[in-house]
Write a structure and sequence with these properties.
Length: 495
C-alpha cells in the first residue's frame, strides 16, 4: 500500500473510527481517545488562563504562599518511582493472556490469548497495598518538613489560620492524589484509554470550576487544593467503578503476603529505573531554572520558563497520537505481534511528527504576534534560540517514542544514558555561561548538544531493530516489512 494512503487510513481511523456504521459525528468524537487527550491538554492550559488572573488578585504575601505550597507538593507526581508504569504494563500483559510476569522481558510464548484475570487481580491487590504504604510515607515525610517550612511563612500571610488550613488540605490532596491515581492507571492498562481519559477530563474540569468558584468567594490559597481533593475523589471513584464493571469478580478476597512480595519484586527492577529517569529529568529542569533565575534574574527566568511551557504544550498535543496506543502495543508485545505493532506505530509516529512540526511553526510565527497584539508583558526567547529550543523538543519527542517502545518489552535500557545526558547538560550550561557570551541561549543550546551526542540518534536507531527494521526503512518504506513477512511466512521475534 502507498505510504501516504496508509497514513490517511490511520488518520481516518483515529478520528472517525474503524467502522462505517457510526453515522453520528458526536458519537465518533466521544469515542476518540486522541480528541479526549487533546481536551485534557486544553483544560490544563485553560486552568492557567482562568485561574492565574484570579490568583493574582490575592495579596502579595498570599500569592507567594500559594506558590510555596505548590513547590512543596511538586514532588508528588514522581513519588511512586515509576511503579504506575509497571502496573499499567503488567495489566496490559495480563489482558493479553500472560500466564506470569518476568522481572525483565515480555512474556513471549507464555500467553493464552484470553485475558488472565487471576493475574490481573493479583496486580490490582498488590497496587492497592503498595499505594497505601506509599501514601502514608508521603504524608509522614512531606508533612514533617513541609509543616516546618509552612510554620516560617504562614504568620506573614493575611489570614494565618486559613493559610494553615490550606497547608493541611494541600498535604491531604497530595497523599490522596497518589492513592487515587492508580485505579485510572489500571483502567488504561486494560486498554480502556478513552474512558480513562474522559474521567480525567471530567475530574480536571471539576477542579477548574471549583477552584474558580472558591477563589471568587474569597477562600484564597485554600481554593485550588480543596478543589483538587474533590477532583481526585471523583477520578478514583469513577475509575474504580469502571474497572469493577469490566473485570469479573476476583476469585478470592485476599492475596497471600508471599505472592504479593514476589509480585512486587518482579515489578520493582523496572519501576525504580523509570522513577530514577523521571527524577533525573525533573532535577535537571529545576537546576536549569535556578541557574537561569540567578544569572538572568526573574525577567530572564520568565522568558525561559514561558518558552519551555510553549514547547511542552506542543509536545503534549503532538504526543497524544502515540500515547493513547501504548496499552494496545503492550498487549501486542505480549503476543509477539510484530506485524501489528509495525503497522500501528508507523502511522502514529508520522502523525505525531507532522503535528509537532505544524504546531512548532505556528508557535514561532504566531506567539510573538499574539503577545504584541495582546499587550502581554511576556516574551519568549529570541527567535534563533526559540527555534533551537523547539528543535531540541522535537528530537526529544522522537527519543521518547522509541525509548517508551523499548520499555513495552519490560526493560529500561535508556536509564543511564538519559541520567548521564541530564548531568552533562547542567555542566555544559555552567561551562558555556562562564566561558562564552552566548547568554540565555545556552539554556536551549546545551540540551540539544548533549542529547545529540547519543540519545537523539541511538534510541531511534535501536527501536526499529525490535521490529526487524532500520529507522530509514521503517519510516519511509513501511510496505517493505509486509512484503518480506508475506514472502517468508513469518516475522522476527521481539527479544
Amino acid at each position: 500500500m502507498n505510504p501516504f494512503r496508509q497514513l490517511l487510513r490511520q488518520l481516518n481511523a483515529a478520528f472517525l473510527g474503524s467502522t462505517s456504521t457510526e453515522k453520528n459525528l458526536f458519537k465518533r468524537a466521544w469515542n476518540t481517545a486522541v480528541l479526549w487527550s487533546w481536551g485534557f491538554s486544553f483544560l490544563r492550559l485553560a486552568s492557567v488562563l482562568i485561574l492565574l488572573p484570579l490568583l493574582t488578585r490575592l495579596p502579595a504575601a498570599d500569592f507567594g504562599f500559594y506558590y510555596l505550597l505548590l513547590s512543596i507538593v511538586a514532588i508528588t507526581p514522581l513519588i511512586d518511582l515509576g511503579f504506575s508504569a509497571s502496573v499499567e504494563r503488567g495489566v496490559s500483559y495480563a489482558m493479553a493472556g500472560a500466564t506470569h510476569l518476568r522481572p525483565e522481558g515480555p512474556p513471549v510464548g507464555e500467553t493464552s490469548g484470553n485475558p488472565n484475570f487471576a493475574l490481573f487481580w493479583k496486580l490490582v491487590r498488590t497496587a492497592r497495598v503498595f499505594y497505601r504504604g506509599l501514601t502514608l510515607l508521603l504524608l509522614v515525610v512531606l508533612g514533617g518538613f513541609g509543616t516546618y517550612i509552612v510554620s516560617q511563612s504562614a504568620p506573614a500571610t493575611t489570614h494565618p489560620g486559613l493559610a494553615w488550613t490550606a497547608w493541611w488540605v494541600a498535604l491531604l490532596n497530595a497523599g490522596f492524589e497518589v492513592y487515587a491515581s492508580w485505579w485510572n492507571v489500571v483502567l488504561r492498562g486494560m486498554n480502556h484509554v478513552v474512558t480513562g481519559t474522559r474521567i480525567l477530563c471530567l475530574g480536571y474540569a471539576l477542579k477548574l470550576i471549583l477552584s474558580a468558584v472558591l477563589l471568587i468567594f474569597g477562600y484564597g490559597v485554600l481554593s485550588v487544593f480543596a478543589a483538587g481533593l474533590i477532583s481526585s475523589a471523583v477520578i478514583r471513584s469513577l475509575s474504580r467503578s469502571k474497572v469493577l464493571r469490566v473485570a469479573p469478580p476476583a476469585d478470592t478476597a485476599s492475596l497471600p503476603r508471599r505472592e504479593m512480595i514476589g509480585l512486587l519484586k518482579t515489578l520493582w527492577p523496572n519501576s525504580w529505573r523509570i522513577g530514577l529517569q523521571l527524577i533525573s529529568t525533573y532535577a535537571m529542569a529545576l537546576v536549569l531554572m535556578l541557574i537561569c533565575k540567578q544569572k538572568f534574574q526573574l525577567a530572564g527566568a520568565g522568558q525561559y520558563g514561558f518558552s519551555l511551557n510553549i514547547a511542552a504544550v506542543v509536545q503534549a498535543i503532538a504526543s497524544v497520537w502515540v500515547v493513547v496506543k501504548w496499552p494496545m502495543i503492550n498487549q501486542m508485545r505480549s503476543r509477539n505481534d510484530v506485524t501489528g505493532i509495525y503497522r500501528l506505530l508507523w502511522g502514529r509516529i508520522w502523525l505525531e511528527t507532522l503535528t509537532f512540526m505544524l504546531l512548532a511553526a505556528l508557535a514561532i510565527v504566531v506567539t510573538p504576534l499574539l503577545l504584541k497584539i495582546g499587550g502581554f508583558q511576556k516574551e519568549v526567547l529570541p527567535s534563533p534560540w526559540f527555534l533551537v529550543l523547539l528543535v531540541n523538543a522535537f528530537l526529544e519527542t522522537q527519543m521518547i517514542i522509541w525509548g517508551t517502545f523499548l520499555t513495552t518489552g519490560n526493560r529500561v535500557p535508556t536509564l543511564w544514558p538519559i541520567v548521564g545526558s541530564n548531568a552533562l547538560t547542567v555542566l555544559l550550561v555552567v561551562l558555556l555561561l562562564e566561558k562564552t557570551s552566548i547568554g540565555i541561549g545556552v539554556l536551549a543550546l546545551a540540551p540539544l548538544i548533549c542529547g545529540a551526542l547519543f540519545n537523539y540518534w541511538y534510541w531511534p536507531r535501536m527501536g526499529p531493530r525490535d521490529v526487524g527494521s532500520t529507522w530509514l526503512r521503517y519510516m519511509f518504506r513501511p510496505q517493505h516489512f509486509s512484503r518480506a513477512a508475506s514472502r517468508s511466512g513469518s516475522v522476527p521475534s521481539i527479544a
